[in-house]
Amino acid sequence: MFERVKNSFRSGNRRVMLQAPTGAGKTRLFATIIDHSLRKGHNVWTLVPRKELLDQASDELIGIGVKHGRICPGHHESGAFNVHVVSKDTLIRRYDKIKKPPSFIIIDEAHLALDRYIEIQERYPDAFILGCTATPERLDGRGLSDLYEDLVMGPSIKELIELGFLSEIRYFCPPTPGIENLHRVGTDYNADELGRLLEKRKIYGKAIEHYRKHAHEKPALAFCRNIAQAEETAQKFSAAGYRFENIDGSMPAGKRKMLIDGLRTGELHGLTSCELLTYGLDVPRVECIIMLRPTLSKTIFFQSIGRGLRPYEGKDNLIVLDHVGNLAEHGHPLEPQAWMFHGREKRGKRKSTSEAALRLCPEIDFLYCDKPSCAGCPHDRQGRKKRKFEEVDVQLKEVKPIPLPARPAEERKIVIDRINECVEAIEVKIEPGPVKEMLEIGRKLGYPPMWVYNRVNQNKHLVNMALLHEISRQMKYAPGWAWVQQQKLKGKR
After folding, report:
1. CATH homologous superfamily of domain 160-398?
2. What is the SS3 assignment for 270?
C-alpha cells in the first residue's frame, strides 16, 4: 500500500485517499509514512474526528515507537515534536495559536467531517494530505473527491481473509417480510415503522434464538436503529439469560470504557448501540454481529461488519446475524465493491439484488453460500440441481407529509406541545438538537425549513442570523443561503 500511495503523490496529487479495510495494516503503514515524511523534513499531523479515535491513534503511535505531542483539550502544540495527534475540533478553535503549520497531514476515518477537513486544507494549502478510511463513501451521497484528487485501493476483505489477517465470515440472513415496505427518512428507515415491524414479526425473539443456536455466549455487538431500540434489545437479551448492556454517546466516558472493557474481558456477552460502536472500537474478541438496523448506507454496513473481523486466539470465524435484509441491499462483504468516491445521484429504484446476495440456504437458517448449485450438497433435502433466485424489489417510498389539521386531536396536542418545547429551548440557546427536531417536525407536517425560523422568531424585529446559519447547516445548504434569507427578511420590513 505504501508504494501505491507514494506513486500517487509522485504523479502530482497533493491530496490522496486510501481505502484500507480493517486488518490491512494501517498502523504499520502510518509508521512507514511518518518515518518517510520525517526524513524529508515534514511536520506531520495525524488528524482525527473524535476523542475516542484520538486516544486510539496516540496509543498506536506509542506502540510503534513514534514520539509525538497532542493538540486537543488539555494539550497544546509542542516544539519538541515534529509529529502531533490532532483533534479537528480543537484545531479549528486554535488556528491562531499554531506556531508550526503541518506540511503532511494524515486523516483517520476520512469519510467523516468533510466540510471541516476542506476548511483545514484551505487553512494549510501547501500541506500534503493522506485520508484513510475503510469506506470511501459518505452517508449524504456527497463526493469525497470534493477534497481528494485520487483514490488508492488497498487489499480487499477477501484477500485479507485468505492471508489470515481477518476472520472468516458465516453470514445468516433469515427473511423479514415487510422490510421492503418501510419508508425512507434520509439514508435510513423510519424508526417507528421499523420498531413496529420488528415487534410484529417477533424479530427480537428470533435474534435471541439465532444467537443461542449459532453464537451462544460469544462476544457480540448488536446494531440498532435508535437508543430506545438498543435499550430494549439489551433488556430482551438480558431477560433471556445473557449479560447484554446498551451503550450510547450520552454516557460518561468512564462508563462507556467500563462497558467496552466488560465485553473485552468476557464479563459481558454483548453490547447494543445505534451509532457509537461503528467507529473507533477495537475489540478483537467480538465473534458475532447482530444487525437489527436496516440501512441504505454501505458505510454503516461495512463499518458494522468491520467491528468483528479482527482475528483472535480461539476465534474460528465471525458470525453475522442479519435480521433486517442488509445483505440484499449491499451484497456479501466478500464481493467486489464499487465505492461512490465521486458521490452519487439521488437513489432510484433498484430492480433486483445480485444473485450472490441471495445465495441463502433455507436448510441452515439462511446461511450465505457461495456455491452456484445445490447439486451434491448434503443439506439439500429437495434434490435441487440449480438454485432459484427471486427478484427482490427494494424500492423505498417517501413519507408523504400529513398536515397538522388532518391529524387526530390527541396527536395534534402532542405535536403542538413538542413544537412549543423546541421553540422555548431555541429561544434560550440555539443548539443543533432542538433545531434538528423542529426541521423534522416541519418535514412531517409539510412545512418548508423557513417555517422553523418564522415560528421561533415571530414578532421579533431583528434578523436572527445564528438561527439561519444553524438551519442552513442542518439542511446542508450552499454557502450564502443564510445571507439570502437575511436580505429577504429585511425586504419585508
Report:
1. P-loop containing nucleotide triphosphate hydrolases (3.40.50.300)
2. strand
434-449: average pLDDT: 86
Count CB-CB contacts under 10 A for residue 476.
10
Q: Where are the domains of the chain?
A: 2-155, 160-398, 404-491
Question: Which residue in 311, 293, 164 sits closest to 221, CA to CA?
Answer: 293
* pLDDT per residue as tens digits for the range 337-362: 778 888 865 444 343 344 444 678 88
- Between CA 156 and CA 20 the distance in angstroms is 8
Least confident of 21-30, 99-108, 170-179, 262-271: 21-30
Euclidean distance between the first and final Cα of the chain, in Å? Answer: 61
pTM: 0.70
How far are the Cα atoms of 119, 318, 366 from residue 361, in angstroms, in the given order? 49, 18, 4
CATH topology of domain 2-155: Rossmann fold (3.40.50)
Handedness of CA 140, 141, 142, 143 (dihedral sign): positive
Burial of 368-395, coded b for 16+ CB within 10 Å and e otherwise, reads bbeeeebeeeeeeeeeeeebeeeebebe
> Measured on CA atoms in the order 31, 37, 39, 41, is the torsion positive or negative?
negative
| Dist. CA 102–CA 42, nearest whole Å | 7
- pLDDT tens-digit profile of 297-321? 888 888 889 889 998 888 989 999 9
